[in-house]
Amino acid sequence: MARGVHRIPLPLPNDALRAVNVYALDGPGGLVLIDSGWAMAHAADVLLRALDGLGYGLEDVRRFLITHVHRDHYTQAVVLRREFGMRVSLGVDERASLEESAKPHRLPMEAQLARLPSLGAGHLVDLLGVRFRGSEDAGEAIWEHPDDWLRPGTTISAGGRTLNVVPTPGHTRGHVVFHDTDDRVLFAGDHVLPTITPSIGFEPVLSPTPLADFLGSLARVRSRPDALLLPAHGPVAPSAHARVDELVAHHGRRLDQTEDAVLRGDSSPYEVAGVLRWTRREKELADLDPFNQMLAILETTAHLELLVAQRRLRTTVIDGVHHFAAT
Q: Any idea what the Cα angle at residue 167 is, between residues 161 and 173, rounded to 5°?
């Protein structure tokens, strides 16, 4: 681990991802945390104990730097700010999704659910609606605005180091990473993960080009000096560049597989997702639970749409469902 940086894994309330990494930077000027965890009592207790082991308390936290607006990164900062008054900073392009999340009685994943019928997967809407019903966010409680919006290209002094704010849209449109080029450290959030591929366009206000955004962001990180990879999920890795290369290669293969499925006769995103394989265990779509089926279909759609943009496929709408075919 880099000097003055401490990784603090905080628990999550689900089985898909067990923990989110919060990074504490200690140095002149006070304690700064990168990401904050999910707003729940158990996570706050774990954070308190970890800081105590470093000789700090929550009252010593001067600022939260948040990589993106997802619940497991942003919401605990909002709750802790009420008691301790620390500053919370978030990428400026997350504003629309934050404001959408804060709307009263909004169901999680509303935008994604609304797309499913046009992707040939309308049967999942009722299944997922049952899952999400009753889980509306109390908008004013956990989706308050940050104290300041982080703008691309700015620099931040934190923990005795200088962090460059680098825009990395794709996972969400306002995702940022924090790059210390002097010490060769990259706080990567969910943009570059060491063992899994990040979900694309996983946000309340959807990007029209999430995969193109993501691949462009990977190229941006690859063009910068290499660094120790400090991800939001999973272990620290020695080279951000090496993992970026793996992610780019993965999506290149996935684009080819997706195109091949269409050329064999599958046309809707649901049909194409059904012939691809998912997770490192190479599962079939039917073997996934409805939530992960939705994510798989949405990711397939992102690949199909990029293939259209590359003029490798064309698309038509038949009875309200998008279909893809060879050019």
A: 140
* Residue 261 and residue 212 in one domain: no
Query: Domain of 45: which CATH number?
Result: 3.60.15.10
β-bridge partners, 19:
11
CB under 8 Å to 186, separation ≥6 — which residues?
177, 178, 179, 180, 192, 221, 227, 228, 229, 230, 240
pTM: 0.95
Kindly report which listed range (23-27, 63-67, 250-254, 272-276) carries the lowest average pLDDT score: 23-27
Residue pLDDT, tens place only, 238-263: 999 999 999 999 999 999 999 999 99
Strand partners, 33: 24, 64
Alpha helix stretches (DSSP H) within 224-310: 240-263, 269-275, 290-309
Helix runs in 30-165, H state only: 41-53, 71-84, 95-101, 110-115, 123-132, 139-142
